[in-house]
Amino acid sequence: MADRGASAVSLPQDWPAHPDPILALNRMGTFDWDLDAGLIHMDAQAYRVFDLRPEEFDGHPGSLGVRVPQPEAARLDAAVARAIKDGSENYGAYFRIRCRDGTPRWTHTQGYIRRDGTGRPRRVIGIVRDATEELAESEVRSLRAAQDEAFRQQTNVVQAVSAALAHARSVRDVISALNDTDGFRHLGAASMVMGLVEAGRIRLVAEGPVDASVPGTQVTRIDEQYPMSEVVRTLVPRFIESPEEFAEGYPILWPHLTDLRVTSAAYLPLIAQARPIGAMGLLYSDRRGFSTEERAVLVALGSTVAQSLQRAMLYEREKDLAQSLQQAMLPRTIPSVRGADIAVRYRAATAGGALGRDIGGDWYDLIPLPGGRVGAVIGDVQGHDTHAAAVMGQLRIVLRAYAAEGHTPATVMARASVFLHELDTDRFATCLYAEADLSTGVLQAVRAGHIDPLVRHSDGTCSRVPVEGGLPLGLSAEFGRLDYPVSTLQLEPGHTLLLCTDGLVEQPGADLDDGMRRLSALVADGPEDVLALADRLIRMAEDRGGDDDVALLLLRRRVPEAPPAGGRLQQHVASGDAEALIQARHLIRAAVRSWGYRDRADEIELVADELITNALLHTEGSAIVTLRALDHGAHRLRIEVEDSSSALPRRLDAGEDGVSGRGLLLVERLADAWGVEARGGGKAVWCEFRPDA
Predict the structure, then answer these.
(1) What pLDDT is attached to residue 50?
(2) Which runs of E-coded beta strand occur in 255-339?
(3) CB of 660 within 8 A of CB of 647?
(4) What angle do CA 415, 420, 424 make, to 5 degrees?
(5) Residue 277 contacts by C-beta under 8 Å, 6 or more apart in sequence?
(6) pTM score of the predicted model
């Protein structure tokens, strides 16, 4: 068995191998350092590692200085001394040597320290080996790992910038997103430039940092010798990898960049829908060249920026168009009104990036009326688009026309509702129309599905004013209900009327009444000046944001300086309309007290009530009550009650049968003068009063 095994496997005579050949095969040399004698013995492989011939080394450590530079020798001696001092048994270190031909070589040594019984170090035995390939491979791996990490970081930057750019709604937003996310700085760039193509030129829209400005490059032609012009012409990125390449390729631009210490640059065309819309440049001051991966990342960044810019530019055009339409539909100017301070404001919606939704149907209007009266309008057409704005413009114009024709507030609102219904649109509108006589403070308001107005009193308190309402405009005609009740209130001197749309009040998830209370508190705490108060309210709306537009109108009645001359109020009273009769009495009472007839107010109200009642009882139609303050050398108050009957009233003397007609005796006794005038197919019974003595 033994013989067969021996014949089957022939073992070498030097088996097992001696350690020396094993070390030699691994290009490791050995040394033995006698610390007492201060001599080092090296084998043949160790000489090869140090690139020495035996005759060039005398065994003293200092003789290795011909190959080991002094800094490396000092570092190696320090490692050995530290191991000896610490009581360590071994040490290891990498160090460089200078070969015979002058080239450097990395070397590694590992030594074992032998001590005697007392612990004193006596010898160091160890190995030395050529570590050039090892470290080279390690450096390659480290470099590759660093490149991979840099690529990952750059990819993350592009993703972060892309996420930030998704919310950009203007060119300025795009630039801010790049700056706020430090996009170009995270990519290692020292500065960034960006330009947009406009009419065959490139207009610079961003550059940073501040000290990176280059004179004469704010607007450049596409055919000029600039890198941004080149990438716009060719649609190909331009990677400049050294200062020399930059200076040679762009001699006009390079002298202006020398202070920036630019070492390389990447210029990217910004392409959208196969056409250039601009260019972006990234300038570097600490690198040369771009890897394939880095170029791919930068091209991806350019594509993302281009898409965001195209979106932003489209949005800005749409927004300009929408705002132009909105401004065309709103009143160009607000007329000054004697006896009142007026402020109006409008804020467009912010619809979270949706194109065409920064416009709505909210509107305001102020309508001067005869007799020192004024009409105030606030309204909101359903929707947030150009169609809503167009409907709003038409509705504003017809409502203004109806009011200017002299119709009562209820009639104005009813006719506007019919108009919107017949406009053949699917939109409805809410509206509030208030007609005020600033000389008396009498205010008549009608409401079509709109929120109530607020009144800030002269003492600074603010309250909601309930106004009885009807259906929104456009729906009342459809449902056959055109009645819009009129609410009458008194606007005292120093009081401020606030009309607004629900965008100023409503908040998602909040109750409307809570919103009205918050608005009342804000108005109460606000300034007395209507312009300053309007600014505060619209600023609050802007800070809060939201997807609804806001319109508001403030009207503050001034304290009258003197009794008015030529003031005029009018009220239509239909037959059987008790509410209208009550409103007429309220209007007369407020007017005579405001116009300086306070002591005769009861007499005037009694006479007016008698004339109105006679007209309603003895005619088949309605009555129109007109109250005028006359100034023809002496102040007088004139009341006219007009009806459609041509039959003249008869005054009955005492002793005649019946009670009819005796009211004229009361008129004759209380009024300073009275009479009857023919008015077309009807008549007007009038009476006059002089002011208090």
Answers:
(1) 92
(2) 264-272, 275-284
(3) no
(4) 140
(5) 196, 197, 270, 271, 306, 309, 310, 313
(6) 0.52
